[in-house]
TrEMBL record:
Known catalytic reactions: uridine in 5S rRNA = pseudouridine in 5S rRNA; a uridine in tRNA = a pseudouridine in tRNA; a uridine in mRNA = a pseudouridine in mRNA
All copies of domain Pseudouridine synthase RsuA/RluA-like, residue ranges: 35-172
Protein's UniProt name: Pseudouridylate synthase RPUSD4, mitochondrial
Similarity comment text for this entry: Belongs to the pseudouridine synthase RluA family.
Subcellular localization: Mitochondrion
This protein's record includes keyword Mitochondrion: yes
GO molecular function, one term: RNA binding
Assigned GO CC terms: mitochondrion
SUPFAM superfamilies in the cross-refs: Pseudouridine synthase
One family name in Pfam for this protein: PseudoU_synth_2
One record GO biological process: pseudouridine synthesis
Organism: Limosa lapponica baueri
Keywords carried by this UniProt record: Isomerase, Mitochondrion, Transit peptide
Lineage: Eukaryota, Metazoa, Chordata, Craniata, Vertebrata
């Protein structure tokens, strides 16, 4: 029997997360095998609000091998996201370091943000190199637009690095196209529901006052692992994601 198990999951826990897939690994193993099965092993993580494919291992040896592939960036990860707006250009690479900063507001909190190595000179508009933030991490995300409609886009994303909230930050602050339902990164200085365009609200049959209930539309669509031969693991978007695609008329019939 294969040492790998592919599962569609809602999220994997981190600091402060009480309910996560790690808590049900023993039960899941018994469902897949038998009542005497050993607990499955986590090989990587998904952010709290991200849906999609996750790899679990049946034994420690397989888990350690797969974790090493993730650590050495040998796993190809493809995500889908519905974003507000249309990225310009429609395809490209965002390569801007990311750092965590405290947001000073009436409700102090922390967010990841961009820490670029360059800025535009206010005098002549030329690009000027600036000192690197020593706490910033290198972050690279490839993207391409698959469809656009209703003031939104469906994007395919490939994170080359694995910085916390990388895709969300690069889309919101790098391209100006925050992910639908990303209330954290749709603003910088405040914690507030995402502001949606009128046409988007109309297509979703949603009032702005109810926007706070929109879930994050970020989905781990495919993982490709080089284990002797390359293994592709694909997970369809969850029902809420598919319903949003239909309402916004974002056609992915050919994907």
């Amino acid at each position: 029997m294969s040492p790998l198990v592919s599962q569609s999951v809602r999220y994997v826990g981190g600091p402060g997360i009480k309910n996560c897939i790690a808590d049900v690994l023993p039960i899941l193993a018994k469902m897949l095998e038998n009542m005497k099965a050993e607990p499955l092993h986590l090989c990587h993580r998904l952010d709290k609000e991200t849906t999609g494919v996750m790899v679990l291992a049946r034994n420690k040896e397989a888990a350690e091998r797969i974790r090493l592939l993730f650590k050495t960036r040998q796993v190809e990860k493809i995500y889908w996201a519905i974003s507000l707006g249309d990225p310009d250009p429609a395809e490209g690479t965002v390569e801007i370091p990311i750092v965590e900063k405290e947001v000073q507001s009436h409700q102090s909190h922390y967010k990841m943000t961009l820490a670029p190595n360059y800025r535009l000179s206010p005098e002549d508009g030329k690009v000027v190199k600036i000192r690197k933030n020593r706490n910033a991490e290198i972050a690279v995300t490839r993207y391409r637009r698959l469809a656009s409609s209703s003031a939104c886009s469906l994007l395919e994303l490939q994170p080359i690095t694995g910085v916390k909230h990388q895709i969300r930050v690069h889309l919101a602050y790098g391209l100006g196209c925050p992910i639908l339902g990303d209330h954290k990164y749709s603003h910088w200085s405040k914690l507030a529901p995402q502001k949606l365009p009128e046409i988007t609200l109309k297509r979703l049959k949603l009032e702005q006052s109810k926007a706070r209930h929109l879930p994050l539309h970020l989905h781990a669509h495919r993982l490709s692992l080089p284990l002797g031969q390359r293994i592709d693991l694909i997970c369809k978007p969850p029902p809420f994601f598919q319903k949003t695609l239909k309402k916004l008329e974002l056609d992915i019939a050919n994907e």
